[in-house]
Design a protein that fits this description.
Chain lengths: ~325, ~325
């Protein structure tokens, strides 16, 4: 009997990695795809360009702090930004379920246009498909993006003592989506962190003077998945100080209530950056001077432990391993 | 009461145009998007690049002559080719319904890899989302593509006497999808024409010596929709000779049986080319020398009638107007 695709294959965790590395990569093997970065870096007419794509299936379509349109623009901008590129152009592919209210579609299109315009990128091509009722769920959006190189991050330069920085509170997006779905705590203010990070990233690059090793945006699978990927890719380990991670009280509360691990919660306006020890202070200062980095913090560092592990050290001296998540905590968060 | 999206909004006909020109374009207005071509032409580092996107929701996922994977690669290659670009790179975004057999997914991924490899393009980035059972229908694929300029087609140079050429029999794709769905005529051999056209297009450009005015790939809405768009865009009319249009007997049979108009049937391996009278012969010869152009034919010409109409002239001296289709004949053909 054959195997079938499960929701966990789309979670950003272990099964997603198995699907990508075990099934997809062997079929498409090429130098641009192989690094499995957030965007491909391609040679074009003596220059390089960065190219990335993401589909968005978030439910509900509108949520506190954003909607599927804002998410689709920010997600692709952020993939370009953390790959070291300045985002230039976006494509926009809509798959609409028959009977979607035109008014809702218009609100989401307005949100795409506003987010793109504020971020200084243009939507230059698009496509619209409509499927019959029940053939899709409201609206899915794909955005692909092209960027120009800003900085050449070199993950291979990573060394023990390098610092791990995040630009603010983690887990906000997935917690906000969970809350919107379950309709709990109506008085609680909890917005998705959905935001375009390219300007923040540019200011970090400026401040770092070549000290940025690598950046990732911790979407599906959260900070835990991203750090595990970086540990695997660099044959190093990370020690993260639990007390140094910025977490909103509301997110902490939801995690305690439902049993979520905040390390695996998806973010849509966060960057995880590994930076040289020497540049960390300047990068942190630059981040805190930007509205999207006010709560930036150094949360840990790279160690010479070659077992490719992510350790979470508690304030009480305990230490636990944060492994690659095996399945997602919630489906359809982005 | 608000309006809702209908299947006809995705048909490639009048409602699609209303949605794009009335709702989408005003929100995203920019110089690259405005021409509403098959791909955007963008300035990059002193050169230009072409960028396009398409989502694919075809049902069934596998059909005679192709599958959704082959279609997703060919569709985006063809959008680049008819915009005057040499396709270089593709992105691939998968939206998978939970429970899709892994074996079927693997077959479709193999088809993507084979089609891309044979066409000399690379899939350089991708994304995978999984939605719960009932949240989508099997598999949707988005491909975006980047190409380098091959030739600068100038629709504005169009003039009366220019010839309209197609590279072979029209309507094969939609008729094959219809037949696969309705399971009629099991003995009948009728394959989709799904094929990558960039090499054929390159040979046409070579032969034309600058005589190509404009090309389009007649997918949703068929040759009828494409000619209407060209007539509107050029403030001219076309007279098409019905007897000169290559049509398979099987497709003609299905049209008579079901009442389809072959002029509106979708193609996935056809190009409609407006070429100067002087270059038409050389272009036709070049097309017929290519495996994908063996049945190429001059089917009509541009007239100085400024009413922006498409006339279909019959062998008996009759003439009817082929207007922009108002709705699609079948949903989910691509």
């Amino acid at each position: 009997m054959g195997k079938n695709i499960t929701l966990a294959h789309g979670s950003g965790g272990k099964l997603t990695r198995d699907l990508i590395e075990g099934v997809l990569l062997p079929k498409f093997r090429n130098a641009a795809l192989e690094p499995l970065g957030d965007a491909a870096s391609l040679p074009f007419d003596g220059e390089r360009l960065h190219f990335t794509t993401d589909s968005f299936v978030v439910k509900p379509l509108e949520f506190p702090g954003g909607d599927i349109g804002k998410l689709a623009v920010c997600g692709t901008i952020n993939d370009l930004a953390v790959s070291g590129a300045r985002p230039l152009w976006l494509s926009c592919g809509l798959i609409i379920e028959e009977n979607l209210p035109l008014e809702l579609l218009e609100r989401i299109l307005d949100s795409i246009a506003k987010t793109a315009s504020e971020a200084g990128v243009s939507v230059v091509c698009g496509d619209t498909k409509v499927v019959e009722r029940g053939g899709a769920d409201g609206l899915f959006i794909n955005t692909a993006g092209i960027g120009a190189p800003l900085e050449n991050f070199r993950q291979s330069a990573i060394q023990p003592g390098d610092k791990v920085i995040v630009n603010g509170t983690i887990g906000d997006h997935e917690a906000a989506i969970f809350r919107a779905r379950e309709k709990l705590g109506r008085q609680m203010v909890l917005n998705s962190d959905c935001a375009p990070l390219h300007e923040l990233v540019a200011s970090m690059v400026d401040a770092a003077g070549g000290g940025v090793r690598v950046m990732r945006d911790p979407t599906r699978g959260g900070v835990g998945a991203v750090l595990n990927e970086l540990a695997n890719g660099s044959k190093c380990s990370f020690t993260i100080q639990e007390d140094d991670i910025p977490i909103r009280n509301e997110v902490r509360g939801i995690c305690e209530l439902v049993g979520f691990d905040v390390m695996y919660l998806a973010n849509e306006g966060k960057v995880v950056c590994v930076v040289s020890d020497g540049a960390a202070g300047a990068v942190l200062d630059a981040m805190r001077a930007h509205p999207l980095g006010r709560d930036a913090a150094i949360i840990g560092e790279l160690t010479d432990d070659t077992r490719e592990r992510v350790y979470l050290a508690s304030g009480f001296g305990g230490r636990r391993i944060v492994s690659l998540p095996t399945g997602g905590q919630l489906p359809r968060i982005c």
